Amino acid sequence: MTKSELIQRIAEANPHLTQRDSERVVATIFDEITEALAEGRRVELRGFGAFSVKDREPREGRNPRTGETVHVDAKRVPFFKTGKQLRERLNGDEAEADA
Q1: How far, in Å, are 4, 6, 11 from residue 16 at the CA level?
Q2: How many CA atoms lie within 13 A of 49 on its CB side?
Q3: How many CB atoms lie within 10 A of CB 37?
Q4: Which PROSITE patterns does the protein's record reference (predicted)?
Q5: pLDDT tens, residue by residue, 36-92
Q6: Do 55 and 37 form a contact (C-beta atoms < 8 A)?
Q7: How many CB atoms lie within 10 A of CB 7?
Q8: Residue 95: DSSP 8-state
């Protein structure tokens, strides 16, 4: 599902919202999650999952084209851990996920 498909589905499920309102809602949610992660905070959407930031240490990597060893700097990367209800739903345990 793309961002525009998500906006469309929200607009269809909420006839009182215009397409523009749905776009604003989605943009605001993404902006808030992004801002929290940029500040190093964790974002938990209970039952769905949690977004956080992990620090990656510097390391030696390999250029796949040439095979040459290259230095990869330390960096922060986004991380997502699924929530219990989402995991159960994905694994066909819908009865437990609804509990």
Answers
A1: 18, 16, 8
A2: 12
A3: 17
A4: HISTONE_LIKE
A5: 999 999 999 999 999 999 999 999 999 999 999 999 999 999 999 999 999 999 999
A6: no
A7: 20
A8: H
